[in-house]
Amino acid sequence: MAVDLLLGLQWGDEGKGKIVDVLTSKYDIIARFQGGPNAGHTLEFDGIKHVLRTIPSGIFHESSTNVIGNGVVIDPVVLQKEINDLAKFKIDIKSRLIISRKAHLILPTHRLLDAASETSKGKAKIGSTLKGIGPTYMDKTGRNGIRVGDIELEDFKERYRALADKHESMISFYNVALQYNLEELEEEFFAAIESLKELTFIDSEEYLHQAQKDGKAILCEGAQGSLLDIDFGTYPFVTSSNTTAAGACTGLGIAPNKIKEVYGIFKAYVTRVGSGPFPTELFDEVGTKMATIGNEFGSVTGRQRRCGWLDLVALKYAVQVNGVTQLMMMKGDVLSGFDTLKICTSYNYKGSTIEHLPYNIEPENVTPVYQEFKGWQADLTGMTTYEVLPAELKAYIEFIEKEVEVPIKIVSVGPDRKQTIMR
Ligand code: IMP
Question: Which residues are catalytic, by number?
């Protein structure tokens, strides 16, 4: 059986959680490959909204095994809370969730370092979710990190202390006012570590290799979006992992030639949280209308998301970097009720027209060139087949497909599992 891959093509929040949940019945294993609790994957069904942070979105299906891969960074405190929240719904996490020993742990001092680093940046801040993601990946690549497997070692506490002490001296180096009670944070951390020990730790690359040999179907689940990739995103306003397709190989130990379908998820418009360039951003009432109708508020931080028109230059770039084979368009319903819609088809860049994403997409370098589309007024949320969608929406969808040269296989018309049109 092949391994398929699902990832976001914009700046995150495309709706990956919903689609993984919709597709899960086709897969035996759902494996998360990067990021950490900076993610907030929202799933809605039976009138209940769930937000997953570290746990893969297949957790609601009895038949699927959910793997947290080596490329993920885990905050035991957040994971514990997530597990407790799911326990209320009688989900037997222990039988459905397994964790790579090679995944790195987010320490309380990683979160403090994140806050200290952001504060020290002033106006140039990244807009981080402050979950300790950057400092944890820094320790990983700096070869100082603590991994899940270390919990099983006798000297775990000594390793912890040595790293936390180092972090404390780094925090003082930043010279910013930070209020915290480390003792309290550590008490919470070690309690969560004890609970974590009740879960199953595995050598996930070996587990997934064996699963492939046994003919199991595997779906790799990405977090954040391609434009937040540490290498290919809008650096430095990015997250600290490879959110693009290659991240699934390094974050799970899956060989590139085993990957078959690459599902690329995008919104019918664009959103971004945090700082950084966003060429098609709207600063007028149209953007506000998108944010309001689309309920564009961060599921982790509650921050209002910046909104703008669909950017085909950026979308094509993401499709190319990831080798996307099928597209899924989310939140089509949010665009109902606009008289005119726009899609950015190229940029004016330093006096010439370009159709690729340049090194620097700051507003002073890039002006989007738009094509206008007629809007539609119908409410899509009860529509269940492609045929009944308004002609204007079909024209919008088919234009994107033609430009990007990849078929749009799913059109989502609402947050619920059921509001998903397959083509
Ligand atoms: P960090 O990964 O929390 O340090 O945040 C770095 C940047 O990525 C910030 O602009 C965040 O807003 C953004 N970011 C991180 N995780 C997500 C996500 O799951 N959705 C959308 N944006 C995210």
Answer: 13, 41
